[in-house]
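Quick one: structure tokens for this chain, please?
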Amino acid sequence: MGNVIDKNGLVTAGGHLVVFNPVTQTTRNPAAGQIVRYNKAMVFKVLARQNVQGEKYTRRLPTTESTPFRSYDSGIPVASAAGSLPARAYTGSAGVQFDLPGTEDVQDMWKVDHTYYDRLFHVITKVSPGFVRVGVDMPSSTNQAKFQRTKKMIGIGHDFGWRYGGTEFVPFPEIDVSYQFGNTTNAELYPMCELTYGEYVVGIQSDPEIVFKVLTGREPAHVITMPITTYDAAISQGLLRAYGTDGFRVYPANQAGAAMDDYQREISENCFPKVLV
């Protein structure tokens, strides 16, 4: 199979981008009299990329002197200047977003509404120094990092459940997303953030056979997993407002007939015609 991403990790025109929902759902199979567990995924075809020669944006952390922080120890950390990450501190429960004047939402450069159904951002964030803890909340203010199902909360303020130095995700239209950053050192930091992004012109794949091949690995695609452990209603409702569907069910490779029948129904009955390609 061919590679659908370029040297920067972005999907090339004509390739497929799959956004996998890791939260397992259930349904009853009346014929077999059993409960079936399954996952879903959004399957996009990338028709083109905008600004393909300039998909880098480097800036300081989007914090100010008034940004709320939490402490790894005690007290209330305060940033001494814009772009600062205080010692032994991590961002507040609402996280932070990258502001950009002139955008749809000047407080969040990735936030757009359902009218942007034909556009999709793919964001790869690299933070320097590389020991800064990084996380993503989808939706904003919702810690999706959990352990043993939902038994224990983990994440940026805990011993594990985060990444060092970067993250990759897809912010969908209609769904608020925020970043979390943490500094476990005893020194105040001024991290630099390199945002490699693709502004894709996209559509949902309308050929059930291609959808099946993509989801079973027979057709090349770049796969990104949603940073979630709970399928929050804000996510499903946002997808439905933008696309009419919250994804295709992922079937085993030996169930091609059932899968393609299901995909055809999803495409014909639920997907907005304007989103299909």
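DSSP finds three helices and 15 strands in the chain.
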